[in-house]
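FW: tagging you since you asked about this chain on Friday. Here's the raw sequence from the shared folder, copied in full. Didn't touch anything.
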Amino acid sequence: MTLPTLEQIRSIGVIGAGTMGHGIAHVAALMGAQVHLYDAMRGAAQAGIAKIAKNLDRGIELGKLQQPARDAALARITAFDELASACAQVDCVIEAAPEQLDLKRDLFGSLDQIAPSHALLATNTSSLPISEIAKSLRDPSRFVGMHFFNPFM
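HL: got it, structure written out here
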């Protein structure tokens, strides 16, 4: 199996639409990726997109972003209520779920079955050992720790 290079990642599933998740989705969409935003809580992914829109509007007010870039970024983000739908056709999945080892292990066990075999699987954990999370995967070589810090403009 060959993992995608950074240049080959065109679509990203972001798991979790809270502060970190919607911030990661925001940055990924601005950089041109198609983003599938998922949260286990119904309606949270759509609420995450609303927060992204507000943050992008703030970027326009500050002169850091133009309206066409804002509109294009928002058009690249889709909210999903089902994990399987959100991750079935992506090149990379970035998890931004609460810092609970069992939760992350269960989530990556599911992602191992759902995400395409070529997809890079990333955790945004800031405190849990990634080697422990990776134990839930058949092929841990596709797994990486990728912690974002303040992913806003």
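FW: The beta strands are 11-15, 34-38, 77-80, 92-95, 120-123, 143-145.
HL: agreed, and The longest helix spans residues 44-61.
FW: great, closing this out.
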